[in-house]
Design goal:
The complex is a heterodimer of chains A (238) and B (379). With 238 residues, chain A is α/β, with parallel strands linked by helices. Chain A contains 8 helices and 12 strands. In chain A, the strands form 2 sheets. A 7-stranded mixed sheet of chain A has the order 2-3-4-1-5-12-6, sandwiched between helices. Chain A has a 5-stranded mixed sheet with strand order 9-8-10-7-11. In chain A, a hairpin with a 7-residue loop joins β2 and β3. The radius of gyration of chain A is 20 Å and the shape is elongated. The N and C termini of chain A lie far apart (42 Å). The two termini of chain B are 16 Å apart. The chains are: A alpha/beta (238), B alpha+beta (379). Chains A and B meet through α4, α5 and β9 of A and α2, α3, α7, α10 and α11 of B.
Chain lengths: 238, 379
């Protein structure tokens, strides 16, 4: 029987919550070597190896077929794997890690409410300044798809790896596409979400590679975890 | 397959030499614009859909550069930097590589584009017919048969809108959405049936400027809400759009007959000589009638060039992905394995040179041939 590799986020809240849900499902993770080791074994289902990777690495390795399943954010999955590509997909939505990927603009733009306004603003901006609107984001693909769907083309993406919400105030972009939980950071940076600016209501997901989708061990894993999700209240993200 | 064998390379060169001979014999001067171009002129002009397909990189000083994704913009830049009188009539042709992330079959990352650009042409319709003739001749010289020419005319569409009574800002938005059928239809709907009473998150802001000085009210609202003005949008920019939205509320909706006329126009499709009757049925308002007359003149001009316009296809909704076309647009296709394949395209783009820094509007018409696709389809 082939060894299956299931990946768990290696740090942060997502790691704690992933460990937590596995434990409650009766699945223990035995780390190899030291406490800081990056490999482990799943106790409860035979021949399943655990790999500890960053949430974004998990999405990439799933797409590349280097791991068989993993827990990661749906936002990262959608960013990494194009809609037409069925190499990997969500097997189970988990009840933690909820956050929204949104389009947010400066609150001082009193005349802007919806994506269609951005089209007009882009034209006005180009006429006045000779350049396109800049969107700061780490979600290059998600942004391109959403803006294309809404018919907005007069913009350019400025890649941002951290503190995206600060970009308009600093002057490195005019608007942002970012992930938000409570919306407090957006408010603190005087940004507002467009009325139709919700791109993705994301949460942590258990995703599986298409090649092992029928593996009985994966089915068992999904069923055990699913039971834990439906019997517990939805977790609160403070 | 990476690279070309000597046989492939020689055959491609022979094909392209035949193409360039046609252009040069017609008086077009073969230039070689730079392969490495400043990224901003492409990216600022085309937005993210081109950006996602362009190879962009930085020089050691941090300037953003790119491998040119096409040769029209580089040819324009060449022109503007090599003459003190850019509005003087000039004819260029070129043959060279361009680079894009591939998005379809038969489209390699590095491809060779052959083309011509005619700047400052005084001949208008005659120049357009000549460009189409030269493109067809070049393709035939390369050995192509069974080609099909398709045309569109953005000038006709603009004229139709011009004659319809509606605020200029509505015309502007409709022109802008011409390339996106779904968004266009939705926009037409909102003009015909304004969602009266439908509130959005900024409705109170629009209420606030009603009957007041928009700029002053906008400043007051920003101060009241303790909002900093960030980005380069000014209070005037913001209040101008609030004023437009206020005006939209009491604007006469677009009459159903006008919506129908626009939709009827966009449905027009057929052989170039047959569609004339359909176009005339749309109407004969001043600008549209003038554009229709030009359309008929173009048919004659094409015949004068020895072409057969009866075999050309016209469709009113034909536009190209590049937003800089302003009038005639055309595409030359050939039947390939599964579907028709476009091997050449072009049109009129009268705003581009001015947009790139020329002090005045300079008419321009040109075409480009995708030589690798042409080669593949003839092999």
């Amino acid at each position: 029987m082939k060894m299956l590799t299931v990946a768990i986020p290696s740090k942060g809240r997502l790691m704690e919550q992933a460990n937590d849900v596995f434990e409650r499902a009766g699945l223990k993770i035995e780390r190899f070597g030291t406490d800081r080791g990056y490999r482990g074994r799943l106790v409860g289902i035979e021949n399943v190896e655990i790999a500890f990777l960053s949430a974004s690495e998990i999405a990439v390795q799933l797409r590349d077929g280097k791991i068989d399943a993993g827990i990661t954010g749906e936002d990262l999955l959608r960013e990494t794997i194009a809609p037409g590509n069925d190499v990997a997909d969500v097997a189970l939505r988990l009840n933690f890690g909820s956050a929204d990927v949104v389009v947010a603009v400066p609150e001082c733009w009193l005349d802007v409410a919806v994506m269609a306004d951005l089209d007009d603003v882009a034209e006005q901006f180009y006429a006045a300044h000779g350049r396109r609107l800049r969107v700061a984001t780490k979600y290059l693909n998600i942004t391109r798809r959403f803006f294309a769907e809404k018919g907005i083309t007069g913009y350019r993406i400025v890649e941002s790896v951290g503190a995206t919400e600060g970009a308009p105030a600093i002057g490195t972009a005019e608007l942002i596409v970012d992930i938000t939980t409570s919306g407090a950071t957006l408010k603190a940076n005087q940004l507002k979400i467009l009325d139709d600016g919700l791109i993705l209501a994301s949460c942590a997901v258990l995703a599986t590679h298409i090649n092992i989708a029928n593996d009985l061990r994966i089915h068992r894993l999904i069923n055990l975890v699913k039971r834990e999700i439906t019997t517990l209240p939805v977790s609160f993200n403070p | 397959m990476p690279g070309k064998s000597s046989t492939h390379r020689e055959a491609l060169e022979r094909q392209n030499a035949a193409i360039m001979a046609v252009f040069e014999r017609a008086g077009f001067d073969q230039i070689a614009p730079d392969i490495i171009q400043p990224a901003d002129i492409f990216l600022e002009r085309s937005g993210e859909d081109i950006r996602a397909r362009t190879f962009v990189f930085n020089d050691p000083a941090g300037n953003e550069l790119c491998l040119r994704p096409d040769l029209t913009v580089p040819a324009c830049r060449y022109h503007l930097s090599h003459t003190k009188t850019p509005e003087a009539e000039t004819k260029y042709c070129y043959l060279g590589p361009a680079f894009r992330f591939p998005d379809e079959l038969l489209s390699p990352q590095e491809f060779t584009q052959a083309g011509l650009e005619w700047f400052g042409d005084q001949a208008d319709i005659a120049a357009e017919a000549r460009v189409i003739k030269l493109t067809v001749s070049a393709l035939e010289a390369a050995g192509l048969t069974g080609l099909k020419v398709s045309l569109g005319d953005l000038g006709l569409f603009n004229a139709l809108l011009e004659d319809m009574p509606m605020p200029e800002r509505w015309r502007r938005r409709l022109r802008h959405q011409f390339w996106r059928p779904l968004a266009f239809r939705n926009l037409l709907e909102t003009f015909a049936k304004p969602a009266r009473g439908q509130r959005t998150s900024i409705s109170t802001n629009i209420d606030a400027i009603d009957g007041k000085d928009a700029v002053a009210e906008t400043s007051r609202m920003l101060a009241d809400k303790n909002l900093n003005l960030v980005t380069q949008r000014s209070v005037e920019d913001i209040s101008a759009r609030l004023s437009e939205k206020l005006a939209d509320r009491s604007e006469q909706p677009l009459a159903q007959e006008m919506v129908q006329t626009i939709e009827n126009y966009l449905q027009i499709s057929g052989s170039l000589t047959d569609v004339i009757m359909q176009i005339k049925t749309i109407g004969n308002s001043p600008n549209f009638a003038a554009a229709t007359a030009k359309f008929e003149q173009r048919i004659t001009a094409l015949e004068d060039q020895g072409l057969n316009p009866r075999r050309f296809h016209f469709s009113a909704d034909f536009g190209r992905e590049l937003e800089y076309y302003t009038g005639l647009v055309f595409q030359i296709e050939v039947e390939a394995r599964n579907a028709p394949l476009s091997v050449a395209g072009g049109g009129r783009y009268d705003s581009l040179l001015q947009d790139l820094g020329a002090g005045v509007r300079i008419p321009a018409v040109g075409c480009a041939i995708h030589t690798d696709r042409l080669f593949a389809v003839m092999s």
